[in-house]
Amino acid sequence: MPTQGPARRADAQRNQDAVLAAAAEVFATTGVNAPVRQIADRAGLGVGTLYRHFPTRTDLVLAVYRHQVEACADAGPALLRDLGSPAAALREWVDQFVRFLATKHGLADMLQSDAAGYHALHAYFLDRLVPVCADLLAAAAAAGEIRPAVEAYELMRGIGNLCIGGRDENYDPGRLITLLLDGLRPLAH
Amino acid sequence: MPTQGPARRADAQRNQDAVLAAAAEVFATTGVNAPVRQIADRAGLGVGTLYRHFPTRTDLVLAVYRHQVEACADAGPALLRDLGSPAAALREWVDQFVRFLATKHGLADMLQSDAAGYHALHAYFLDRLVPVCADLLAAAAAAGEIRPAVEAYELMRGIGNLCIGGRDENYDPGRLITLLLDGLRPLAH
DNA sequence: TGCTAAACGGAACAACGTTCCATATATTCG
DNA sequence: CGAATATATGGAACGTTGTTCCGTTTAGCA
Q: Which residues bind DNA (chains A, B) (predicted)?
């Protein structure tokens, strides 16, 4: 129940929703790095209002995509439970993440950007997803389906990096990530 | 013998060299995306002069790093000749490229940037290195050391992407690339 | 219907890439 | 050894962005 404090004004709530909707649209068309003014214009608001509700771009990006990240995090344990093999669960989970990331123009770039402002975004994604990935890796290793040859953190960053630049007829992140996971199989004797 | 045409002015040559030297220093410290003014200041020249000699950032980056890219391209056939196994040659060649790329702050980012201006840079690297990589892959595949599971173009882009963000105690592009190459080994029967 | 705190809008500033042309200077030629 | 001239230079100026700030507006309430 968020009924604490001196009740936020209705127009503020309305405008925040408008910014969120505008950002979602603009992110989808222009990309996650779209100019602030473009988002403000689309929402029919001034840039000051936008900054009031979302002080940093990270705040805005997170507000737009948080649900999908959470869904992805939740999918990990579910897949591990529902699919027979932990390795298959890992593969499906990674595929799901790649499908999410590769379609968000510029998001993968942002995630690894060394710009100070994006550190929080980077941290959120990793904090949320690395533990899930670690569980999947551990289960697959315990089942003898993969070698414990990589840390979840490193794997997640690698997957994120491979998604940068999207996908075209000559480059498909999914293929390379399959190869990466193939590299985790036990060595031939 | 470049003694054709109306002989370029001596100061022009001198200034071009100065820009090149300044750019090399600034790229190494600030990164490949350093502000144009910073490079011009370091060279003791105006920005106009810099733009005259290097109209685009791609021109400047290429002038600074061309030698190393060429050296990397030349190393491919040499390694294939000198090392016993094509797969070992591939691995060593890839390592060499990664060592080059991972130490150039921001260069890997630039290579995959979808900004229109960097297309030429992207193209130069790929045109120069993909054929070399393709030869190494073909040789290793012919020797039965790897499966023909990836195109040279895709592999090179993947390697470039994995180098983005450099290397720290928790993320080492080299480890992931090793894993990627492991994924090319023939499947256990 | 006023009052007041909350919220808004957009002008203003800083940092950057890029262009342009008045000025300065190598080089050449008489 | 001077002009003459093509070449080269410098940096002001413009457009685009992110970000801040404050005068003005307005929702909620008494």
A: 35-54
**Residue B24: pLDDT band by 50, 70, 90 thresholds?**
very high
pLDDT for the residue B7: 75
What is residue A189's predicted lDDT score, i.e. its pLDDT?
59
Q: Return the exposure string of B65-77: e unless at least 16 CB atoms fall within 10 Å of the residue's CB, then b.
A: beeebeebbebbe
The answer to whether the Cβ–Cβ distance between B165 and A164 falls below 8 Å is: no
How many Å does it take to go from CA B70 to C1' C26?
35
Co-location of B104 and B43 in the same domain: no
Residue A1 pLDDT: 40
Specify if A95 maps to a domain.
Answer: yes
**Residues in chain A where the model's pLDDT stays below 70:** 1-6, 189
pLDDT in tens, B98-108: 999 999 999 99
- Phi, psi of A146, rounded to the nearest 5 degrees: -140, 160
Do A150 and A133 sit in the same domain of this protein? yes
- Residues B29 and B116 placed together within one structural domain of the fold: no
Nucleotides of D under 7 A from a protein CB: 6-13, 16-22, 26-29
pLDDT at B78: 97
The reply to whether A39 and A84 lie within a common domain is no
CATH number of the domain enclosing A117: 1.10.357.10
Contact B188 A185 (CB under 8 A): yes
B76 and B112 both lie in a single domain: yes
Average pLDDT over residues B12-25: 98
Answer yes or no: is B58 CB < 7 A from strand D: no
CA distance B119 to chain A (A): 12
Domain that holds residue B31: 1-55
Q: Is the pLDDT of residue B2 over 50?
A: no
- The verdict on residue B109 lying in a domain is yes
| pLDDT of the residue at B40 | 98
Which residue's CA shows the smallest distance to C1' of D18?
A: A36
Q: Which of the nucleotides lies closest to A37 (Cα–C1')?
A: D17
Residues 6+ apart with CB under 8 A from A7: none
**Given phi > 0 = left and psi -120 to 50 = alpha, else beta, which region is B95?**
alpha
